[in-house]
Amino acid sequence: MNICVFLSAADLDARYTEPARRFAELIGKGGHTLVWGGSDVGLMKLLADGVQEHGGRLVGVSVEFLAAKARKNADEMVIAADLAERKAELLARADAVVVMVGGTGTLDEATEILELKKHGLHTKPVVLLNTAGFYDGLKEQFQRMDAEGFLPLPLTDLVFFAEDEVSALAYLEETAGIV
Fold first, then answer.
1. DSSP per-residue codes, 88-132
2. Using CA atoms in the order 111, 116, 120, 122, what is the torsion angle rounded to 10 degrees?
3. How far is CA 131 from CA 9, 44, 52, 63, 124, in A?
């Protein structure tokens, strides 16, 4: 399975790096491919290192203004012209999407993917990996949107909130038809 992961390129503390290491191991040992923003820095590098170390493939999609930070030894690296093209390319190459911890770029990617899914422009499973309760506030906001009628489909059809990396991958394997 090609798993697109949106996440930070920042250097973060152990409450975020350790779950990322475990998720990378699960992806790699599961024989999956990581489709990610291509950066060879921070949490993105840590995830890619782990996937590669455990036998998984790497497909990066960087962007021209970040090309200098792109991973040199990815199995495949695409350089998109801009962020919009990058997001489209990441989604096109993915069977499923996981949103890990990140800043405004990660939030932008997550909301665009969910908006496209809401409008039926893709049906790929989307998981928000709620490491250390990082997305508790966003989860609460989505639940309110759902309860007050702002979503045209049930929240459970839009996104799955996983509290750990094992349940995230199990959900993807189940919903993407991979056993």
1. HHHHHT-SEEEE-S-SHHHHHHHHHHHHHHHTTS----EEEE-GG
2. -100
3. 16, 15, 22, 27, 21
Which single residue is written with the structure tokens 């094992």? 166
Q: Model's pTM, two decimal places?
A: 0.94
Q: How crowded is residue 92: how many other Cβ atoms within 10 Å of its Cβ?
A: 12
Q: Could you tell me which of 87, 9, 97 has the C-alpha nearest to residue 47?
A: 9
- In the chain, the amino acid numbered 14 is A
Give Cα 130 to chain centroid, integer Å.
Answer: 12
pLDDT, position 177: 61
Is the distance from CB of 96 to CB of 67 less than 8 angstroms?
Answer: no
Q: How far apart are the first and last CA of the chain?
A: 10
The C-alpha atoms of residue 71 and residue 111 are separated, in whole angstroms, by 26
Give the pLDDT confidence of 102-134 residue by residue, as tens digits.
Answer: 999 999 999 999 999 999 999 999 999 999 999
CA 60/CA 6 separation, integer angstroms: 11
Token readout for 148 is 């007050």
**CA 36 – CA 19 distance, rounded (Å):** 17
Q: What are phi and psi of 77, to 5 degrees?
A: -135, 125
